[in-house]
Amino acid sequence: MKALFAICAFSTASLVFAGDNTAVSSAHDHAVSPHGGLSKPTVAADIHVAKAVGANARSVAEISTKAAELKDKPVLVRGQVVKYTPEVMGKNWIHLQDGSGKAEDKSNDILVTTTAQAKIGDVLTFKGVVRTDKDFGAGYAYKVLVEDAIVQP
Asked: What topology is assigned to 41-152 in CATH?
């Protein structure tokens, strides 16, 4: 019985930490994060961040809408941090928005995994690899994300 409780407690904690609006399951859309606020990234209508410059530079919307074409390729993306969840599965989970895309089809927000730290409101440029159809278990599967990203100057 104790083992079952531990498994359930771990699964619930994992869902709260890693949850967001791109997850397949919507059962946890309104879960409260222990880091404050709702687990969904905010949709800020007034974000206008210039696109990154250089080889492989893409907007948030381009990565979202051209995921199949960009799969397993490096990209450079610049955006404002709208959600930051530290130290889950050995990574920091950052949602970026740059003002491109639409909330209705979720092309306005991209998840970036990194070891870099950030604060909500920071404008950062990341270089990472586009991954598609990534399933982390516990109902958290993503159509597109940028993994193993590093902050660029």
From this structure: OB fold (Dihydrolipoamide Acetyltransferase, E2P) (2.40.50)
